[in-house]
Amino acid sequence: MKKYLDVLRKCSLFDGIEDENLIEMLGCLRAKVNHYDKNETVIAEGEPAKYVGIVLSGVVQIEQTDYYGNRSIVAGIEPSELFGESFACAGVERIPVNVVANEESEIMFINCLRITQSCSNACSFHHQIIYNLMKVVATKNLMFHQKIEITSKRSTREKLMTYLLLQAKKNGSNRFEIPYDRQGLADYLEVERSGLSAEIGKLRREGVIECRKGWFEVL
Predict the structure, then answer these.
(1) 32-46, 87-101, 192-206: lowest mean pLDDT where?
(2) What is the largest CA-CA distance in the chain?
(3) 147, 169, 185: which is the final residue of a domain?
């Protein structure tokens, strides 16, 4: 587990926990690491919702697929970030989304009950990790509210510009890179790819934005 320390130090689940305690804690929590190839399913919809996942390398996407097979990207999860914690903490029996590796990835899994229930060793850091987990869940709720703010807009143009302006604010710059290709962005915004491409073209001609692949600039 020592080789993952650089990533785990950045993980909000382990805020306030020293390196020597972190290694001990991972053993206590029985953390395990799995490897996934690009486009491989990490967690499939309907599987038990009992694990907290931590991306150690690569990127994974949380996706929802409706009755007609239309895909919606809920979020992209990058190294040191968590997924699955909200479902596990809520006691949901089956996970209602798919988690897919967007590129070759390594994922650490921890059974949520090992975090939320006091262990027999009475580890001094256990209360800290429970507090950290609750903060992560609260932060994720704010992120999902942000997506609702974006997708509730009526037009593709409004959805796109709301997303781009939020990204500019998040990055502290009017130039930034997004984690999606055109199809991924369309799925995140819950719009048709053709309509999205048309709006991007219009905004470029109007001098509102400039872009190249995943790079955008709000002019």
Answers:
(1) 87-101
(2) 64
(3) 147
- Same domain? For 41 and 117 the reply is yes
Owning domain of residue 202: 153-218
pLDDT tier for residue 104 given thresholds of 50, 70 and 90: very high
Token couple for 153: 């807009």
Give pLDDT, residue 124: 66
How far apart CA 87 and CA 166 sit, in angstroms, is: 26
Q: Taking the chain, what is the end-to-end CA distance rounded to the nearest angstrom?
A: 45
Whether 185 and 215 have beta carbons less than 8 Å apart is answered as: no
- Where does 62-111 have alpha helices with state H? 85-90
Dist. CA 167–CA 122, nearest whole Å: 42
Q: What confidence tens digit (pLDDT) does each residue in 57-68 have? A: 999 988 888 767
* Cross-strand pairs, 34: 107
Number of domains in the chain: 2
pTM value? 0.69
What's the rounded mean pLDDT across residues 28-43?
Answer: 91
47 strand-pairing partners: none
Chain centre distance of CA 103: 14
Do 109 and 53 contact (CB within 8 A), yes or no?
Answer: yes
